[in-house]
Structures are given as structure tokens and as C-alpha cells.
Amino acid sequence: MIRLLTMLIAVLVNCVMGSTFAAMVGINPVVGAVGLNVVAVTLGNVFPAGSLRAGVYTEIWTGELVKHLRRGLEATWLDGIPDSSSIVNNDVIHLVEVGVDPDVLINNTTYPIPLQALDDADIAIQLDKFQTKVTPVTDDELYAISYDKMARVKESHGNSINDGKFQKAAHALCAQQNSATTPVLVTTGERDADTGRIKLRMQDIINLKRALDKLKVPATGRRLVLCTDHVNDLLETDQRFKEQYNIDRGNGTVGRQYGFDIYEFANNPLYTTAGVKKAVGASASTGEFQCSFAFFVQRVFKATGSTKMYYSEASTDPEYQRNKINFRHYFICLPKKTDAGGVIRSGYQASAVIPEG
């Protein structure tokens, strides 16, 4: 029964793929469907072991994973950021091609208008590489419930890759430390009795707005990505934020206040007590907490590179008779300029201040 089911699934998959490819190149879809099945039989040593070859698996599974990764960006703080994927070549992007904004002259009365070269020294950036750990899938699982298993494996690996992409993007969009063009502000609320963390209050967001105003960051297109600690702080103290938070968030935001589209993310970067950003994936020491960050959408970019599935057949593993699957995906998100965002990190007070007298 399993053998027959495998054969039918294989024929169906080959028909769909063959007809699709044929239509793309202007050939009768029927010819493509029949042709691919003939090729599968010829090269695959007949059903069922060869009808769903590794090549067929990897093409279908890779395509499904790519769809999953794209959907993972929808209604998130990465959605709508300018996409420069079209200029990625061999998983490398050239920053000069991403674009540098020229200065604007208003009511100019001086001629000739000065030239501003945009041919900055070319910087080639390798996209970040995200690789999942290997998932073993037995031959019985793969042949008997191939579509269910494919969906589960694809979803699991896709979720892991997206988690890594968001964590790395958040880290890249946060300043290393405070400077004139990269403000890293410190919270000014009450002290949390359990952790010593100084809580966020709405005035801190107003202070961040003021800092971006001074940098002349455009008012439209500002996004604020709050860590969960800061979201909870505002839920405790700000009724307006609490009301917005409880509204259905179909567009991914948890509110809009003071010109910011506000999002929530659970894996924002950590900062030391000295105000220095820690490495991606670093653990928190005493007094170190996740930050919140803001950016101007049009001054950052994202780019997606290649996605590849790695697959070894059970026939190469006689001891366990299991297939092995994992994925590699390239992606990057970076700021175009360093003067279009800011950070709010939590302050720390080791012990409560005891009033004198």
C-alpha cells in the first residue's frame, strides 16, 4: 500500500512540475507532464525509490521554504523596508548600489550648483548566512506521509531561520554606543525592585522623538521596536498605550504614538551598564537588559540572497535508514546612514535609594 501511494504521489508531483515548466517555456503542459515522468523512470531506477528523487525533493521543499520565509516578514517591523534583493549577486551586495541620498538645495541663488559625487568607495558586503541544524527523517516517514512531513519540516526550519534573521537585523539597526548621530538614551522611570532595572516611561519615548527631531529625521516613516520589558512598563503606566495594545493588530503594530509606528520584538540587543551593545546572542550579566530601538524606514535596507536545501538519502545511511535535511539562507538588513535611528536602553540601579533622615 505504501509503495502504491508513493508511486501515485510521485506521478502527481512530476505531472505538476513538468506541466508548470513546460508552460513557462511555451510547450504544451501535457508534454511536460509526461516528459518529466519519463525522465524520472529513466533516471530513477523505476518507482518508488526513484520517482521522488532528491532533486525533486530539494526543488519543491526549497520553494516551499522560500514562500514561508517571505510570509514571515509580513506585518512585522521588517515589512515595507526598501528591498535591494535585485542587486544581490552571489550573495554579495555592493553598498554603493544601495543608494546614497544627495543633499537638497532650497531656494538656491548660487550658481553653478555644486556637484556632489555619489560614487563612494565601493564596499562589498557578504549577506549574513543562516543555517539550520540537520533534521533526520526516516524513509518510512518520507514515503508514507511525504506532504505532511514536508510541511512540518519546512515550517520548523523556516521559523528558525526567520528568528535568526530578525535577531540579526535588530542588532544591526542598533547603535554600538551613544554618539552625536546615534543617540542611545537611558530610561528614567521607577526602579524594578526585583532586578534593579529602571523602567521605561512615555517621557523616554518623547525624549527619543526629540533626539530624532534634532537629527532632522523625517517625521513620517519612523518605527519604534519595543522590547517586552518596555512594553510591559508602558502597559502598567500609560492608559492610552494599553488601549492601543489591546486593539486587534492586523498590521503588526502595537500602537502609534508621538509619530512612531510601534512594534514589539522579544529578542532585541543587550547593552552593558556602560552603554555598549553586546554581541549577537550574548547572555545578559547583572544590570544588562534588552533595549528598544527606532529607525527611519527609508534609510535602512534589506536584501535576500539564495536559499539552498541540503539533503542526503536514506540509502547512504544503512545503519539508521534515515534521510537528513537542513537549509542555508542568505539575508541582510543594515542602515544606509547612521543618523536616522536611536536606542533606549534600560538603566540599572543596584539597590534602592534610602531617603536620609
Average pLDDT score: 81
State the helical fraction. Answer: 25-40%
Q: Could you tell me the radius of gyration in angstroms?
A: 26 Å
Q: Residue ranges: pLDDT <50 for 5 or more in a row?
A: 1-6, 41-54
Kindly, what is the distance between the CA atoms of the first and last residues, rounded to a whole number of angstroms? 86 Å
Order of helices and strands: HHHEHEEEHHEHEHHEEEEEEEE
**Percent of sequence in beta strands:** 15-25%
Descriptive labels:
single chain; 6-stranded mixed sheet; 357 residues; alpha+beta; 4-stranded antiparallel sheet
Written account of the structure:
This protein has 357 residues and is an alpha+beta fold. Helix content is 35%, strand content 20%. The protein has helices spanning 2-24, 29-44, 54-71, 95-98, 139-144, 146-172, 202-214, 228-237, 239-245; strands at 92-94, 124-126, 128-131, 135-138, 184-186, 222-226, 255-257, 260-264, 270-271, 289-290, 292-296, 300-312, 322-335, 341-345. The strands form four sheets. A six-stranded mixed beta sheet has the order 5-14-11-6-8-7. Strand 7 (255-257) and strand 8 (260-264) form a beta hairpin. The protein starts with a helix and ends in a 12-residue tail after the last strand.
